[in-house]
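Intended use. Records like the one below are meant for learning the mapping from a protein sequence to its folded structure. Do not use them to infer anything beyond what is encoded.
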Amino acid sequence: MRVFVAELGRFLSRRTIAVLLLLAVAVAAVLTVAAAYDTRALSRTEMDAAQEVLRKDTAAYQQELQACRKDPGQYLGARATAADCEQLRPQLHSYLVRTPLNLAAEVDERGTVLMVLLAAIGLLVGATFAGADWADRSIGTQLLVETRRERMWLAKAGAVTVGMTAAAALVTAGFWGALRVIAL
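Structure written out for the chain above:
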């Protein structure tokens, strides 16, 4: 346990690791700002333009509706009825340039991007933590002090795992919390 605590202290004291963790926070912030920008409220001009296009398309729709009612199978498939032709009616949401924030859809979009980037940053953090000991040649001293080498390597792996898991959990919680606030 003492070796793990020492490795965790070394993990937290590395400046390069702190910079990489700040990069993880910055990535989450950029994704959050992008989500807020992409789902911002529509301006009056954008709404008016969408309604104008809807009005024009609704007039053209009347001709299509008549043709569909005469032969619904040609428009919608063999089992279609004349009543099914109403689904061709233009809807306002089809003409809007942005949609409201949908948290369920964000899981597959920005949520996946965040997880992949956090995993990549985690790999960099692990490599940096292990590589720093080799670069400054302190690994030899550590191996002399701790005679059970497996214990030292497990402590290093545990420190990286605990430190990166905690950081990733905080970044992820902040990301989803901010998106939740935006969605309200």
